[in-house]
Write a structure and sequence with these properties.
Helix content: over 70%
Strand content: under 5%
Structural class: mainly alpha
CATH architecture of the largest domain: Orthogonal Bundle
Distance between the termini: 40 Å
Radius of gyration: 23 Å
Largest sheet: 2 strands, antiparallel
Shape: globular
């Protein structure tokens, strides 16, 4: 009887929270991080923690297991309770507000939601520089994962070339900004005043993306005649060629790497590029060319017989994916303000493949979940050192056994359904 009663209680609780619109969750998260900013340190001391947990208590608890109860209590008091209470209490008025925003202007609704999301991330990252770095790298990982999912998920090829595309974008954007705007011992005096550099930075990223797209021709053209394992070998060879080429080019620092990148990849910049990437890639995979990618994945010969230009489709997919991998590389180089060819090797390939297949193939949702999950999990398990590289692969093995296509596979990212009120959603409006 007790078990049945508990199940009913959980079902009622789930139904009550299912009525909370996205606006309510974002508002609750903003309130929670604001409370942490104001009284997080005092609460941490009160529950027996030496400082505010930078990553939801994982790092602290793994270093000192005795702090696990204190870390859990802190997370519940700072995050779970405020978010749950605000979301539940505000569900009805925010549903009405979400409905009005959705009915009046989708653009205004999107801007308000993105504003709340950015404000939450900004306040959360303001606690420490470590949080800020982790957040920026996680956002860049989303871009990289989405771009690889275009090829490996939507088109059904197995490409290993993305670290090479990322390297081309990182070095291309870095050379543009360092040569033009930085006094550097490798390239000499700046050619242009640094004051105009931030306005040029988007162009530098785009140039890096275009360089990666040109490099993608080395993989796209062989893909016309090869598939599966053979294409994987070709794309892997491309990655090693790019890495070796950069290591032997002393003009860009060779194996020592390239530094002195200006500090222009701040949180607003990385956030806006990530949002733009999600929007553009989502529109791309839902467009006619996206449907052609799915046709090539399911049966290339049948797609060709049904007048799908498979060569053009592959060419566009590889160049498009490489462009966004290059953008991610350019942002990555300017976040760390240093780039080294050894960064873009087998380990980076394993990392991005894990993000794609962990999150889910053929899904923008899956790429976001996979990138955030693997990035944050990797940082959370950092105190375990070598054991981290045992736990994460084991987790991936379990996912592949029980969810072969990933956690959230083959699911469309529909902004309309995401932003509308729950009442509208239930009525099918």
């Amino acid at each position: 009887m007790q078990a049945t009663s508990d199940k009913r209680w959980f079902k009622r609780l789930g139904r009550s929270f299912s009525q909370v619109p996205l606006l309510g969750w974002l508002l609750g998260a903003l309130v929670a991080v604001a409370l942490e900013q104001i009284g997080g340190l005092s609460l941490a001391w009160a529950v027996g923690l030496p400082k505010i947990p930078v990553l939801f208590g994982f790092l602290m608890a793994l270093k000192k297991p005795l702090l696990v109860p204190s870390a859990l209590l802190y997370v519940v008091l700072i995050y779970v309770l405020p978010i749950g209470v605000i979301a539940r209490v505000s569900a009805s008025p925010l549903n009405r507000l979400a409905g009005k925003l959705f009915s009046s202007s989708l653009v205004i609704s999107v801007v308000i939601h993105l504003g709340l999301l950015y404000a939450t991330l900004h306040v959360w990252a303001g606690i420490s520089d470590y949080r800020l770095l982790v957040l920026k790298l996680a956002l860049i990982a989303i871009l990289l994962t989405l771009s690889l999912n275009v090829v490996n998920g939507y088109m059904g090829e197995f490409s290993c070339s993305h670290p090479g595309f990322m390297a081309l974008g990182a070095y291309g954007a870095s050379i543009c900004t360092v040569v033009l705007f930085v006094d550097d011992k490798l390239f000499g005096s700046a050619l242009l005043p640094a004051a105009i550099g931030p306005f040029f930075f988007p162009l530098a990223l785009i140039l890096g993306g275009l360089l990666a797209a040109v490099g993608a021709l080395a993989v796209a053209i062989p893909s016309f005649r090869t598939r599966g394992d053979y294409l994987a070998i070709i794309s892997l060879a491309f990655m090693f060629i790019v890495k070796s080429m950069i290591e032997n080019l002393e003009i860009v620092g060779g194996p020592r790497g390239l530094s002195s990148q200006p500090d222009w990849a701040n949180l607003p910049t990385v956030f806006l590029w990530t949002v733009a990437g999600i929007w553009i890639i989502n529109n791309f995979v839902r467009s006619t060319i996206g449907k052609a990618l799915n046709a090539v994945r399911d049966n290339e010969m049948a797609a060709d017989a049904m007048t799908v230009n498979t060569r053009r489709t592959k060419f566009i997919a590889f160049c498009f994916a490489a462009f966004w991998a290059g953008i991610a590389g350019g942002l990555f180089a300017h976040v760390l303000r240093y780039v080294n060819p050894s960064t873009f090797g087998i380990q980076k390939l394993a990392e991005v493949l894990a993000m794609v297949y962990f999150g889910g193939l053929n899904s923008v949702y899956g790429s976001i979940v996979g990138a955030l999950g693997i990035s944050l999990l990797g940082e959370a398990l950092r105190p375990l050192e070598i054991f981290k590289w045992i736990i994460i692969p084991l987790l991936l093995i379990l996912v592949m056994i029980y969810r072969p296509t990933g956690l959230i596979a083959f699911r469309e990212f529909d902004v309309v359904k995401l932003l509308q009120s729950k009442q509208h959603s239930e009525k099918g409006v």
